[in-house]
Amino acid sequence: MTTGHRITVERSTDHVRVAHGGQVLADSTRPLVLRETGYPARYYLPPEDVRTDLLRPSGTQTHCPFKGTASYWSLPDGPEDAVWAYPEPKEDVAEIKDHFCFYETEVVDG
């Protein structure tokens, strides 16, 4: 890794919910929290806790030298490329494999 750049992945018990247009797209009490130098902490949610049937693959892919290649999905009637996952992440962040990350998440208290 580049000097000064750091990524950590931790299991969390935070209750994370994602809703769009009044519809719940994801609800999880077992997210992973990825912290990366220079970026806000991001919740990666297991696929079992995501309504993948409501996501539309967008065909967009991006590459991160630290995490690997991400694939993107769009929300129903919503923003393009609002959700991403790493099908084959780099070894240092292998735990996030196939977990979904949303730009907009809500942490639900207790």
From TrEMBL:
InterPro entries: DUF427, DUF427_sf. Residues 16-104 form the DUF427 domain. It holds the Pfam family NTP_transf_9. This is DUF427 domain-containing protein. It comes from Streptomyces ochraceiscleroticus. The lineage of its organism: Bacteria, Bacillati, Actinomycetota, Actinomycetes, Kitasatosporales.
